[in-house]
Amino acid sequence: MVDQxxxxxxxxxxxxxxxxxxxxxxxxxPAGASDEHEFSDALTRxxxxxxxxRPIWSKRAIQSQLPKRFHTALxxxxxxxxxxxxxxxxKDGYTKLGEDPRSDPKYRYYQTLTFQLPxxxxxxxxxxxxxxxxxxxxxxxxxxxxxLQLCDITDPLMQKLLNEEAVRDExxxxxxKSILIWRFNMGGTGLLQ
Length: 193
Hints:
Layout: E1 7-10, E2 15-18, H1 40-53, E3 56-57, H2 59-64, H3 74-77, E4 82-85, E5 94-96, E6 112-114, E7 147-149, H4 156-164
Parallel strand pairs: 2-4
Antiparallel strand pairs: 1-2, 3-5, 4-5, 6-7
């Protein structure tokens, strides 16, 4: 059953989108999810593998792991393995069915940050779309990226801050607009608090 106040279902793809105040997260594939689409079995197996490797993904990160021919079929296959956050610290994060990132600090690295950059595609030297467009290395952020996950930040300074600072035992659930609910201490710098 879908609680209309805390979850909505995108009708075309039947992807559950959950909101910060939802009491529970989706546990199973929504009724009516289609198996009748090109690449369905192969793509669903690949998505299962990706969500076993990492419980929360941005759309760009998922696409970077797949051949381009699978990209349009994602909308039919994602509901079989995940749900989407509509707001809060994991906004636009595709999350493995049954996983609730509010439950444990280990999920803090999968929180999302949103940027507004000029609309431009990035290509590598061979003229192909760059498969690392979801990664921030401290020097370059791809202009086609508007959403980053903390786990996709590879800049050494940011990694040090994210990995070495104290983490709350309980999430800060005071607001759906909380940026980092596990609130990194950041050595008293005030960063990300």
